[in-house]
Amino acid sequence: EHPKMSASQVKGVSTGTTILAVRFRGGVVIGSDSRASIGGEYVSSRVINKLVQVHDRIFCCMAGSLADAQAVTKMAKFQLSFLSIQMESPPLVKAAASVLKELCYRNKDELQAGFITAGWDKKKGPQVYTVSLGGMLVSQPFTIAGSGSTFIYGYVDAKYKPDMSREECMQFATNALALAMGRDNVSGGVIHLVVITEDKAEHVIVPGNKLPKFHDE
Amino acid sequence: MLEESLQPGWLSEEVKTGTTIIAVEFEGGVVIGSDSRVSAGAAVVNRVMNKLSVLHDKIYCALSGSAADAQTMAEAVNYQLDVHSMEVGEDPLVRSAATLVKSISYKYKEELSAHLIVAGWDRRGGGQVYVTLEGLLCRQPFAIGGSGSSYIYGFVDAEYRKGMSRKESQEFVVNALALAMGRDGSSGGVAYVVTIDQTGAEEKCVLGNELPTFFDE
């Protein structure tokens, strides 16, 4: 019998959500579902956007307490805009992730939030960073988080290929999110994707009736 | 003052088959598979246990949950099936075996914590897979169970297709097991795979270094 992973039963684990970020050739795709629920029984919002823009080419999405995440991202946005004025250039993705990491690490006893940060900068191109609950910062080719992510570890391990094209990567992210939303009762709604490249950050929404279908649907 | 127990922690932990089990029907038979790890807390007390138990010549079950409970249930049903098949004078139906497992699961649902997936071949229905979780009886084209199964829901949803051949089903099972064993701390070791069809049951053991590897291994 698999362990129960909903937020109300396990302390310190993500809220009802599925989020991910994947690097491809020339950019990153960051995505999430759109459900906000109270205790897994009532869907308080069917269409919220969990992807927060912290700078022109840097987005993050959070796993954990919504209140903590909003407070932290607001602070990070401020610090990054200040930083970009001081440095007279757009901030590095690693800088954005580090700002979040500092906040999470220094306040680890009070906060219950983890972040995925993804974006593009001139120095290293497309990057994906994870800041875990206690404040560990790791760079990865792709990362998944949230309660729905447990169900898709096998899928992403099997299907990820390094150096995908933009279309392959969007399909990979859409499929992974749809599979997680199909099995996790606190993830659902529509899929929000943001595709970040050197030129722009493009927001794509995949509505419920356009989600990929699998064998039993 | 340091508090030290005279006995190691694992002696007082219940022995569980935190595990990954999977069974899938194909045209003419079934494939049933499991990992081989038995843990007591953090210790692995058996790294090569075969969790695929014989219920009859062409009916197997896969064990998960408490090791003692699961083994006892399988032995009890094995005995009851022998008696039953002597009474009717022919090989028992897979559904009969599953019903016997379900009866025990349901009657003792408060005391036992084990989940058995029953799979086999009989003359009337061909290859069949039944789940008996908590006392329900349900036939499914494929079934997964155990702690490691959470991680492969997305993978099996995406990869299962109706009408797979014998070889494709075996690959499906081995890939799913390898992915789950890679992510679940309570699953590991070797993969046992049994293929059952009209001619009988073929047992195979896939060693750790022969398991499929994925992009980061």
Automatic annotation (TrEMBL), chain A:
Gene3D superfamilies: Glutamine Phosphoribosylpyrophosphate, subunit 1, domain 1 (3.60.20.10)
Highest taxon of the lineage: Eukaryota
Keywords from the named record: Cytoplasm, Hydrolase, Nucleus, Protease, Proteasome, Threonine protease
Record field: catalytic activity: Cleavage of peptide bonds with very broad specificity
Example GO molecular function: threonine-type endopeptidase activity
Any one Gene Ontology BP term: proteolysis involved in protein catabolic process
GO cellular component: cytoplasm; nucleus; proteasome core complex, beta-subunit complex
Broad class of the protein's primary localization: cytoplasm
Residues the record marks as active site: 17 (nucleophile)
Membrane spanning stretches: none
Name of one Pfam family that matches: Proteasome
Places the protein is found: Cytoplasm; Nucleus
Matches recorded under PANTHER family: ATP-DEPENDENT PROTEASE SUBUNIT HSLV (PTHR32194:SF0), METALLOPROTEASE TLDD (PTHR32194)
Assembly mode: The 26S proteasome consists of a 20S proteasome core and two 19S regulatory subunits. The 20S proteasome core is composed of 28 subunits that are arranged in four stacked rings, resulting in a barrel-shaped structure. The two end rings are each formed by seven alpha subunits, and the two central rings are each formed by seven beta subunits. The catalytic chamber with the active sites is on the inside of the barrel. Component of the proteasome complex.
Role according to the record: The proteasome is a multicatalytic proteinase complex which is characterized by its ability to cleave peptides with Arg, Phe, Tyr, Leu, and Glu adjacent to the leaving group at neutral or slightly basic pH. The proteasome has an ATP-dependent proteolytic activity. This subunit is involved in antigen processing to generate class I binding peptides.
Family, similarity comment: Belongs to the peptidase T1B family.
Protein name: Proteasome subunit beta
UniProtKB/TrEMBL annotation, chain B:
GO molecular function: threonine-type endopeptidase activity
Protein's cellular compartments: Cytoplasm; Nucleus
GO biological process, one term: proteolysis involved in protein catabolic process
Keywords: Cytoplasm, Hydrolase, Immunity, Nucleus, Protease, Proteasome, Threonine protease, Zymogen
Active site: 19
The reaction(s) this protein catalyses: Cleavage of peptide bonds with very broad specificity
InterPro entries: Ntn_hydrolases_N, Pept_T1A_subB, Proteasome_bsu_CS, Proteasome_sua/b, Proteasome_suB-type
Gene3D superfamilies (alphabetical): Glutamine Phosphoribosylpyrophosphate, subunit 1, domain 1
A Gene Ontology cellular-component term: nucleus
Subunit organization: Component of the proteasome complex. The 26S proteasome consists of a 20S proteasome core and two 19S regulatory subunits. The 20S proteasome core is composed of 28 subunits that are arranged in four stacked rings, resulting in a barrel-shaped structure. The two end rings are each formed by seven alpha subunits, and the two central rings are each formed by seven beta subunits. The catalytic chamber with the active sites is on the inside of the barrel. Component of the immunoproteasome, where it displaces the equivalent housekeeping subunit PSMB6.
Function: Component of the proteasome, a multicatalytic proteinase complex which is characterized by its ability to cleave peptides with Arg, Phe, Tyr, Leu, and Glu adjacent to the leaving group at neutral or slightly basic pH. The proteasome has an ATP-dependent proteolytic activity.
PANTHER family in the record: METALLOPROTEASE TLDD, PROTEASOME SUBUNIT BETA
Entry similarity comment: Belongs to the peptidase T1B family.
Protein name: Proteasome subunit beta
